[in-house]
């Protein structure tokens, strides 16, 4: 029996999100259980140009508005790479139009906005997932096995995460991530999202009790964060720190210290190589480098898993998998707390579920 | 012409500092420009036992007091591995007796005490050096070359350092480092000393303007720090964080992020292998693992360099090399600031030179 692929629409393919959209449209096309059905942009010409540049087949419909994609009954799911300030409006509308939702990070400007997206997804029975690619790399579950191994890793005591890249002058002037009217969360919403997620991932999504931003965040003239850091504190004494930045050389580290072992990974966001990715563990029995090989890039794993969940709902009558909403919400909660701490002169902020 | 080696005395060889003293006595014996002349302990029997266990030749004098070592006119220099609470008294007396001084870290309980040691060393023209071994490993200067390379590394933006080891129950009950009447600085004075030094080293010993301890340090019942962390902040926006602990698996990381490159080292305190040590750098041209081979362990490099400086003073009429006093003092200053921040409810502490 031939598989019926999940049909995707993409909302937004303007030059500001071009790179991501390109990557995801390729993944949607290459993933065995999905197909690209339509793309929409506020500018029909931009959408047309994008389709031509990426060699989309004539079967991909081109729309001059986002609404048109959402109104197309053939579209099962949408990928939404719009600037964060537009997430609330379009994510809620997509859910209301019963489109399953693959939403770029940061998922919203704050958790109140995100809760409206959650409500819309739940009310309309649509699957939600955010676009945090590394969660879907096979290496990630291998690393998790180590963290859960009480003999080799023991119990988590502390984590440090770095995500930085040295943005060029053009990025620092023109990218949506440095524009308060398009984004608003800057390096914290972008690079910091990954750091916070990696910390939550390492401690099995147990929320910290308190978050305190580190002093000295660097802001641009419009007040958007270009670099910042924070410490996170749990009830049981666990701690974490992270530093995220648009101003330092590409660094993508997670270091997790347990009572018995240590995990190091240096390219957790995007593995240096597409076909293999490594991490290292040290424990009493020594120091080991693990290499995980894969024949697919991580974005295809993500699209495939998302499409599998959508298919289960559409054809198998399953409920949406709620863990992705929960993980996104916790990430946004911590992100909000870091932002609040920066705004309140580095006060400790209690994280409320 | 035969070399006249620098003649060392060792103050203290009780079981509490046995491991370090063993390592250093071996280094003094193996280094080409030094020789072990005398050991002294409060207990003559302990000193005798130590000499026998380590196979010292009969030429090594054994004394039942520290004073006797300091009064021996043949002794040029002393290695002082006593508990930190005894440093002030014995380091000052050693300097007054014109003995060059190799002092274990933490150098003192606070910078006021250390300034008295500085004064005694300067007034008596003796060479000072603290026992931070990794400073003398050939890898350290290779890593420094990378950090100073404005093309490959650019300018330092942030550093993170971890030093932790999982102390066993015996250590946590009986080691001098967990006893307030012997040490007082706990994991901060021991593991934290290395973290602070690594951060200062990475930024060329420029002192931070502000230091803020991270919340949630872990103390034992006597109030001694078993794990803690801090952030450090410079005038120009540079930041650093560290975490030191007796409660997590052995981890010895420096990660330094520049505008153009990143340095990673995972065993900076004691290289995993004695004959080679590695570090990795990433920059625009890619990711490179550097291996530095050496035929000597780092402690011999330290003893040799210290002895060379002493010889220059003794035979060449040189002045003592003051950089080692300066580096130790800066490390102690930052350490004091972290401790003060912990004691003052995690207030930012200004670092005054």
Overview of this protein structure:
- In chain A, strands 7, 8, 9, 10, 11, 12, 13, 14, 15 and 16 form a 10-stranded mixed sheet that branches. In chain A, strands 3-2-1-4-5-6 form a 6-stranded parallel sheet, with helices on both faces.
- Chain A has helices at residues 18-30, 44-53, 66-71, 87-96, 111-124, 138-147, 169-174, 186-189, 191-202, 298-316, 323-343; strands at residues 6-11, 34-40, 61-63, 77-80, 100-103, 128-130, 156-164, 210-213, 218-219, 225-233, 239-245, 251-258, 261-265, 276-283, 286-293, 349-350.
- Chain A starts with 5 loop residues before the first strand and ends with a strand.
- Helix content of chain A is 35%, strand content 25%.
- Chain A has 11 helices and 16 strands.
- The radius of gyration of chain A is 20 Å and the shape is globular.
- Chain A has 2 domains: 6-132, 3-Layer(aba) Sandwich (Rossmann fold); 134-298 and 332-350, Dihydrodipicolinate Reductase, domain 2, CATH 3.30.360.
- The model of chain A has no long low-confidence stretch (mean pLDDT 95).
- Chain A is of the alpha/beta class.
- The interface between A and B is large, with 42 and 42 residues.
Which helices and strands appear, and what pairs or packs with what?
2 copies of one chain form a homodimer.
Chain A: E1 6-11, H1 18-30, E2 34-40, H2 44-53, E3 61-63, H3 66-71, E4 77-80, H4 87-96, E5 100-103, H5 111-124, E6 128-130, H6 138-147, E7 156-164, H7 169-174, H8 186-189, H9 191-202, E8 210-213, E9 218-219, E10 225-233, E11 239-245, E12 251-258, E13 261-265, E14 276-283, E15 286-293, H10 298-316, H11 323-343, E16 349-350
């Amino acid at each position: 029996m031939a598989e019926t692929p999940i049909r995707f629409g993409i909302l937004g393919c303007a030059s500001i999100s071009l790179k991501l959209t390109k990557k995801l449209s390729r993944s949607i096309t290459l993933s065995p259980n999905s197909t690209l059905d339509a793309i929409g942009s506020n500018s029909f010409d931009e959408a047309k140009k994008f389709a031509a540049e990426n060699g989309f087949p004539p079967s991909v419909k081109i729309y001059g508005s986002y609404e048109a994609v959402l109104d197309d009954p053939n579209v099962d799911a949408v990928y939404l790479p719009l600037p964060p300030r537009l997430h609330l409006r379009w994510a809620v509308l997509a859910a209301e139009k019963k489109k399953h939702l693959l939403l770029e990070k940061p998922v919203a400007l704050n958790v109140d906005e995100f809760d409206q997206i959650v409500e819309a997804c739940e009310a309309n029975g649509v699957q939600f997932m955010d676009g945090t690619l590394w969660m879907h790399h096979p290496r990630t579950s291998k690393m998790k096995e180590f963290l859960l191994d009480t003999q080799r890793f023991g119990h988590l005591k502390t984590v440090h995460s770095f995500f930085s890249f040295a943005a060029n002058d053009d990025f620092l002037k023109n990218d949506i991530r440095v524009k308060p009217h398009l984004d608003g969360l800057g390096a914290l919403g972008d690079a910091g999202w990954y750091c916070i997620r990696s910390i939550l991932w390492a401690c099995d999504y147990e929320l910290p009790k308190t978050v305190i931003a580190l002093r000295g965040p660097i802001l641009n003239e419009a007040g958007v964060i270009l670099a910042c850091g924070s410490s996170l504190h749990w009830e049981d004494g666990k701690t974490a720190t992270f530093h995220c930045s648009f101003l330092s050389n590409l660094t993508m580290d997670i270091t997790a210290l347990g009572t018995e072992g240590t995990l190091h990974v240096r390219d957790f966001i995007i593995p240096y190589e597409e076909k293999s990715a490594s991490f290292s563990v040290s424990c009493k029995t020594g120091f080991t480098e693990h290499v995980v090989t894969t024949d697919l890039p991580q974005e295809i794993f993500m699209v495939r898993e998302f499409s599998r969940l959508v298919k289960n709902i559409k054809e198998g009558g399953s409920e949406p998998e709620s863990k992705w909403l929960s993980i996104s919400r916790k990430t946004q909660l911590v992100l909000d707390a870091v932002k609040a701490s920066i705004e309140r002169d580095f006060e400790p902020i209690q994280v409320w579920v």
